[in-house]
């Protein structure tokens, strides 16, 4: 007669292939289906507004602020610096119905900026961020960092000059909104949800929020030297306060 211990061992051996199959089975993705083609000149949104005789709001770059925070990493992180990049020439459109109380019905937006126009480590921007950005960087250090970030070992701005964002779905009730966002960076697109605080008026919209992007999600290898002794963290924190006007 087979002992109890032997029966348990046989049961475990039989179960192992089943458990392994469950563990390796692909999980269903929560991402939305791939979106439609995305014209670079906002042409589709302009045509939609014209066809529906609805308004378009234009991003006011001078009144808007977008900051990208880059964090030092690696085993010798204390020898490096955190950085802040500003977007001086944000472009984009917001499509919204004519009546503010129905502003979410069919509302959408598209945004874009060029990587080679980014402003790195502006003194006033660093000063506003506190101790983590307290160090003063020389013009030579800023130029070298910018070259590394945008060059072949970083964001590859020459090959992929533009970052683009568009809404795929907007939920909630102003001023608290949830937006399914599609982001194009380094020639690749990813989707994620974004919490947004939006103040909507008849001729003006202001939206504030923040999101975290991982460079590796877009096929980028975060910059590092000396085998990772000094590096840039994978995560980028983007904060924004965007104004659009008619």
Total helical elements? 4
Low-confidence stretches: 4-34
Task: Name the strands of the widest sheet in spatial order.
Answer: 1-4-5-7-8-9-10-12
Determine the strand fraction and express it as a percent band. 35-45%
Task: Output the CATH topology.
Answer: Lipocalin
Mind summarizing the main beta sheet? 8 strands, antiparallel, barrel
Mean pLDDT: 82
Computed structural class: alpha+beta
* Distance separating the two termini: 86 Å
Q: How many beta-strand runs? A: 12
CATH architecture: Beta Barrel
Helix content: 10-25%
The CATH class turns out to be Mainly Beta
Name the CATH superfamily assignment: Lipid/polyisoprenoid-binding, YceI-like
Number of domains: 1
Secondary-structure element order, as H and E? HHEEEEEEHHEEEEEE
> Outline, from the CA principal axes?
elongated
The Rg value, from CA coordinates, equals 24 Å
């Amino acid at each position: 007669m087979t002992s109890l211990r032997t029966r348990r061992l046989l049961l475990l051996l039989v179960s192992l292939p089943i458990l392994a199959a469950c563990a390796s089975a692909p999980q269903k993705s929560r991402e939305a289906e791939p979106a439609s083609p995305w014209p670079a000149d906002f042409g589709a949104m302009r045509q939609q507004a014209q066809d529906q005789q609805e308004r378009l709001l234009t991003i006011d770059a001078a009144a808007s602020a977008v900051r990208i925070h880059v964090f030092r990493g690696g085993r010798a992180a204390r020898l490096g610096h955190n950085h802040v990049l500003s977007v001086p020439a944000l472009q984009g459109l917001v499509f919204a119905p004519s009546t503010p109380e129905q502003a979410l019905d069919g509302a959408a937006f598209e945004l874009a900026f060029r990587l080679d126009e980014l402003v790195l480590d502006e003194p006033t921007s660093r000063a506003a961020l506190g101790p983590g950005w307290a160090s003063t960087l020389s013009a030579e250090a800023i130029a070298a960092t910018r070259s590394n970030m945008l060059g072949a070992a970083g964001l590859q701005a020459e090959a992929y000059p533009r970052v683009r964002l568009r809404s795929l779905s907007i939920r909630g009730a102003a001023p608290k909104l949830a937006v399914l966002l599609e982001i194009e960076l380094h020639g690749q697109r990813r989707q994620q949800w974004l919490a947004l605080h939006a103040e909507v008026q008849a001729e003006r919209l202001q939206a504030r929020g923040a999101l975290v992007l991982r460079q590796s999600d877009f096929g980028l290898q975060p910059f590092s030297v000396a085998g990772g002794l000094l590096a840039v963290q994978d995560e980028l924190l983007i904060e924004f306060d965007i104004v659009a006007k008619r």
